[in-house]
Every structure is written in structure tokens, then in C-alpha cells.
Amino acid sequence: MPIFSYSARDRSGQQRNDTIESPSREAAIAALRAQGLLPLNIVELKAKSDEDGFAVSLNPLDYLSINSEDLEHEFHQLAVMLRSGISLLDALNLTARHSRIGARKTWRRLARRIQQGSSFHEALAEHKIFSEFTIQLVRVGEQTGYLSTVIDQAAIEIKASRKLKQTILTALRYPAFTLLMAVGIVVFMLTSLVPEIKKLLKMMGKKMPPITQALIDTSDWLLANGPLLATGCLAVLAGVVLLYHWPKSRWWLDRAALRMPVFGYVFRLSGTVLFSRAMGLLLRSGVMIVDALETMEKLHVNKYLGSRVALARERVLQGSSLTEPLEAGFGYMPLMLQMVRVGESSGTLDEILLEMTEYHDQLLQRRIEALTGMIAPVMTIVVGGVVGFVYAAFLVAMFSAAGGSPK
């Protein structure tokens, strides 16, 4: 059955943009009017592939496998179709037909598993792209009959997590790029330009200015020890990677990351936002607190915070409150923990967690903006100082070679 994309106004004058499945354009307009909507524009969505699923695209990005942006967009579409009365199998087939070429395989496999009698959450669990959070929400949605609602919530969580990661990566991208460029320029000058200056000054029999002599000594040391230094750096990097992937050392590294100056506060805020948002949505969707904590343990990238959640789950099973084991460790922001205690007492834990999500998310955004603003001038001063020293030594040497006084 064709799907139409429409723009319409409701009785309050608000514009709505959505999709609707209908046998014809006229029937779609009639269905919208029956819902109290005034259609402004309605267009049939054309399938991107034929019945055999064959399609060709000139954009190579279309062939990339399914990603979080695909899930965010297509989960919303799934929710709309389910609310419109379309069966889950038909909704998955329609999603596969209209999705990117690289994402279609995943949706078709899901549809095939549903057709074979599998539940939706079991089918999702077979694909790594779907988080434990999404699988848990869908499981509850299937049990309660509110599948469209929880799929919408999963899309909101995917979008929020993606934006959080982008924000943190954006804050770290500039200083990392600047540092790499500075190191590259300095290494190039010390290994290529400075040795030529040294040869020129020796040929002219000129005495080295002190600043140039210091630069040449640094260059000689780097040329003599460069391979050993590079090997040592690679060994250290490989060691850090191995330690990061070893569970025991990963726990200590993640714990140390939360106590880092400046950046540790950002990591703590990030973990707090993740916990409060995901826990709030899980509890609001009807997930039991023990199951929600089990899901949260898997969601945390920081293994130290994940271990705190695992401990909290064990204590809750023993009859403890949620707040006490979380407060025993270091990691989450104190205000969130205090409000969790209030939410447990009042029975509004899900609402309070979602309120804490908004508050700490705004705090995180401001801190990242401040951090970016602080890093930029510091990096400029450091890089400018290093490069300036190299150029000063170069210019003084050239002036000396030309017959001027190095003093």
C-alpha cells in the first residue's frame, strides 16, 4: 500500500508533518480530514528499489551499513506506522523499502525473523547496532501493548546519545588537531631545516648564536634518538590500548579518568546525563528497577560507573535503596543522587530522573563550551611559543650568517 508524506494543520492551527498509508491520494486526504486535520500538501513516497530489492546509487555513502542516524529516523517512521494501524511486519518491510541501500539488509532480516515467528526484541538482539536499552524498551512495549510509544522513546534516546558524543568529540577535536599539527611542524623543522642551517653556518665559519645552538642541539638529539623515541611512543600507545581492553586495568583507567583535572568533571557530567536519561525512560516505560539497572550497567562506556550500577543492582535485590550504593562510590553528580533519594521516597523516580537529565545536560553543554573556549587560547600560546622559538632561532642564525651580530 502506498505511503504519503503530508503537511497539515490541526484544529489549533499547529502544522504537522508526518506520513500516512492509504490506497490512494484521495483516500489519504479523506483520512486526514476525518482526524480533524486540514491537508496542506500531500505527496506519495516513491520506493527507492524495485520488487526484487535491486537499487543503484551514485552516492558511495548510501552503501554504508546502518548507523545511529538511520535508527533515529526510521524508528520514528516505525512508530508512526504502528500508530496508524499497520502491522509490525508490514511496517518493517516498508521501512526496508524506503531506507538507505546499506541499511536495507538489517530491516529485511528483522522482517524475516518476525515472519518466522520471532518477537521483535529477540530479532533486535541479533544485531549489534541495537543497544541493550532499545531491546529492553521494545521487550516492555511488546508486553504492555505500547510498542509505538517505546520505539519513539528509543529514537529519542538514540538522538540524545548521538548528540552527546558529538558534543564531546567536537570539544576535543580542535586541541587534538592543533597539537598534532604543531608537533608535525616542529619535527619537520628540526629534522629538515635546522640541519641545513647548521651546514650553512659551519661553511661560513660563523659562531652559533645561543638560541640557535640550543635549537641545533635539540635537532641533533632528535635525529640521533628519533627512531628509539618513535618506537617508545608506539610501545606506550600499544600498551595503553592493551590495558584499556583488559577488563581489570580498564576499570582503573576509567576510574582515573573521572578524577582527571578539568576533563574528569566533563566525564562525570556525561555519565550522570546518560544514567538519568536512560533510567528515567526505562522506568517510565514500565521496566522494573532491577532490570533497568542491569541494562544501565551495559550502557555505560565507563566501566567504573558500570560497576557502581552493578553493585547498586545487587544491593537493591538485597532490599537496599538505590541511592545508598550509588553514593558509596565516586562518579555521579551529588545533586542527581540527592534527587534520586527524593524520588524513591515520593514514588516519582522516573520524573525526577528526567528532570535531572535536562539540568545536567545544560550544565554539560556549558562546561564543554567553557572548556573549548579555555583550550583554544592555551593551545595557541603553547603552539605559538614553540613555533616562535624555532623561527626566532632560524632568523637569528640567518642574520648571523649574513654578517650581523647575533647579540
Query: How far is it from the N-terminal to the C-terminal residue, by CA?
Result: 86 Å
Structural class: mainly alpha
What's the shape? elongated
Query: What is the number of domains?
Result: 3
Q: Supply Rg.
A: 30 Å
State the share of residues found in helices, binned by percent: over 70%
What's the CATH H-level superfamily name of the largest domain?
Type II secretion system (T2SS), domain F
Distinctive features:
407 residues, mainly alpha, Ubiquitin-like (UB roll), Receptor-associated Protein, 3 domains, three-stranded antiparallel β-sheet, 15 helices, 73% helix, elongated
Can you characterise this structure?
- The chain has 407 residues and is mostly helical.
- It has three domains: 1-46, Ubiquitin-like (UB roll); 51-130, no CATH class; 156-407, Type II secretion system (T2SS), domain F (Receptor-associated Protein, Up-down Bundle).
- The protein is 73% helix and 5% strand.
- The chain has 15 helices and three strands.
- It is elongated, with a radius of gyration of 30 Å.
- Residues 47-54 have low confidence and may be disordered.
